[in-house]
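ok so for the tutorial part 2 we go from a plain amino acid sequence to predicted structure tokens. step 1 is just haveing the sequence, like this:
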Amino acid sequence: PALLALATAVFITSLTETLPAGLLPAMSADLHVSESATGQTVTVYAIGTALTAIPLSALTAGWRRKRLLLTSMAGFAVANTVTALSSDYALTMAARFVAGVAAGLAWALLAGYARRLAPAHLQGRAIAIAMSGIPLALSLGVPA
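step 2 — the prediction. this is what the tokens look like for a chain of 144 residues:
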């Protein structure tokens, strides 16, 4: 059950990264910008993840992991709620960046949790199961 919860968190954070690609017409109409500008919501999420995942992991190394993971996922949920409700392009882009930051930190934490849930000889398998959310999100979750 714990590995399934981790895989679900990975699935949701991965799905959220690329989801706008399938919703470009609707999002661009709501945001009153072109589809290509709306497509940058995927880019800004990825930038938030790429620029901050490792530094945040290092900066928070001494923090309690459970509280940090819960805070990260709460920030992720708030940022995605703002994205869903926003009709302002700048606010949407800022929320997507924050969601990317939260997801990047969560991914680093989730892999560590998966490793600690398993005995030494099964740790690689546990990480693989937890991270199975990534290919599942990319293959099943993104709308056509």
